[in-house]
Fold each of these.
Amino acid sequence: MNTLYLPELREMIAAGDAPGLREFTEAINATRAAEFMEGLTAEDSWKVLLHADPERRVEVFAYFDEHKQADLVTQVARSEDVDAISQLVADLPADDRVDLLNQLDDELVEELLPRMAQEDRRETLRLRGFPEGTAGSVMTTEVGRLSIGMSVSEALSFMSDHAEELETIYTSYVVDEENRLLGMVATRQLIAHYNQPNQPIAELMQRDVVTARAMDDQESVADKVAAYDLLAIPVVDDDRRLLGIITHDDILDVLRAEATEDALLAAGMAPLDHGYLRSHWFTLACNRGMWLSVLFVAALLTALALRGYEEEFQKASWLVLFIPLVISSGGNSGSQSATLVIRGLTDGQVALRDWGRVLRRELLMGLTLGAALATVGYFSAYALTRTTSEAEPAPTALEVAVVPITLLLVVVCGTVCGGALPLLFQRLGVDPALMSNPFVAGIIDIAGIVIYMTVAMAMIVGLG
């Protein structure tokens, strides 16, 4: 948070310095103005915005983070001028307006919508009708539509007249009389043909246009934009009618949201609707407690597995020293494999049909990594067990081999399970990011103990 202007802003607000507040909102870049206002309360922020003209007010407000926007709208609507705040919301780009309304209470939304112009209200309701996470829910309808019959001069004139209303003017989309998408034309092309004003834009437009369907998953749309390096992607319906566009800044928001979701899922948590600090502590506790409970049960099963080998531990107590090593090696290798496969599924680099290749690679990886860890583990275990006592002599070199053999088997088990489980959950229609790591941890913990003690019984108890 930038505090450079905060004392001055608070003094101007307290003194009601209208000229000073107006100069602040007009003279400073909108992004910087929003940064300087981060430390202000929602009420004080509104007092500052009131001294800006409506266009500038919307511009600065748009750079507030989404939580501050929601707080400001809620507080102002309930205590001050509902009509003014309704107009501010209506002046936002359509996609930003819908995102903001989705964070507000339903009662407040019902109070704001009737105060909007009929066209804005209709557009808002239509966009809110698309399910969350679809292309339609993040698109904006403020897009340049050019008629197929236009000439270069007519297209430039249209763009000049409507530039302030459009989300972007870099690209315009050519449609027929029924609003079906026919092609796209860059503003650069129109300017380059300025000296040929009568040339039809049909001769300049690009007909092979990459599009998204309104019900497409937003993550797949983001992947498409990244793959084709697009500044914007048009959204069409099943009849190829142009509904709107998704711009690159909205795609960045989608990618950031998806990355946050994947990080939470990998940690065994469902995504938060309102962020960490704005979520109720009980909601966080329930969210985190679900998978902690699963892991707790897995730990109990591990304890039960250990209890079944009490007699073997009494005969060779040095085996206890290496239980954490065995469990962590298998769990860490399994988590690595699961993370790589989940990322591959997310990026589209791995598909369900690749299961055979994935398992072969993870088997080879497990053998390679397991052999390396086993080599280090053998010499480390041999050195750590050289202390002797009358009650229990040091294990022989052959007995110490229990540790490296177990490490090899456990790491192989971890990599194979880590590679297979995400594919299995994907096949079952369950989010692999949410399910894989907790299951890998539970399975490898129990499997590690069973493998460890089976090898120990064969090489120590059996030989003894």
Amino acid sequence: MRRVLTDDHPDLLDYRFNLAHLTEIAGHRDESAALFEALLPDCERVLGTRHSRTREVRERLGR
């Protein structure tokens, strides 16, 4: 998807969220946390700090 969409595209942020979430469900918590950590600054920059997706990422990180 990164080849098709720009890094700032909201759909790509959703795909990255889903990957982190599914990684968590698969039991790979450390890898999932790293994916969420990498996603948070991009969500804040693109969607804003008060957007529901940004808040959800923050919640997944326990913040």
Amino acid sequence: MPDLPDLLEKFLASRMESRSFSRSTAESYARDLKAFAGAMEAQGIGDPGRVKPHHIAAYLAGLKAEGKAPASVARAASSIRAFFRYLAADLNAIEADPAAHIRPPKPERKAPRILTEAETARLLETPDGGGPSGLRDRAMLELLYATGIRAGELIGLDVDDVNPSLGYVRCASPDGRERFVPLGKAAAEALERYLKDGRPHLVRPDRPERALFVSRRGSRLTRQGFWKLMKKHAETSGLGGVSPHMLRHAFAAHLVAGGADLRAVQEMLGHKDISATRAYAQMARPSLKSVYESAHPRAR
């Protein structure tokens, strides 16, 4: 049987030929698998049939002990699993797949950056409300923060989906579920100004358009177009690096910090699982140190 390095080359070549891997993916797999093969050969294991589950588990544990990022360890585990699956299923080169039951560690989820109320206000006030595009942009940002809807849901809205006078927005979640979200005063006023003085100057009279937010050409604003506008206003506000989803985070965190019921926030966000909403309670909770310093009579 060919040794590990030869089989690695064969595995990578087969994936490139079948276009299962891009060049960058193949390079990542090559680095991971060559490092693994080197570790096995250092233990005197050159035959892939001699690799056992405990060898793989020990190797991954070693990567973690070296301080490798969880994402890097998870990628190495995926590379090793794909390689041995190829040996067992495609080549029939080994009797049993030693990596079949290896589970990579879950990458650590970083807490999202939450804009403060002052930062949010600065961003929302950035678009120039003197022209049609400025009215549109301000209405979009106000609507994102007022409702917590996703960027895709925002650009998917039609004119009939909003009712500023009654104060609600109707949108469809990615899974197709429809929900109604309340609309605050500031967002309702921004929408009314856009619908009255902005949108009529953007749409083309000869081309009916249902979309609520349209480009300068009069057609529905694209996701890429909205991202460019968001980036421009974030940079102008001096905040930088602000994504549309950060306004969704701010919506939820600020509501929870203000005492809103988690179930109500879950419904407005369209979360299926309440655990996703509970994360905002942790973000909004002040640190023990700040609570102590503000409340204890001898702390100041």
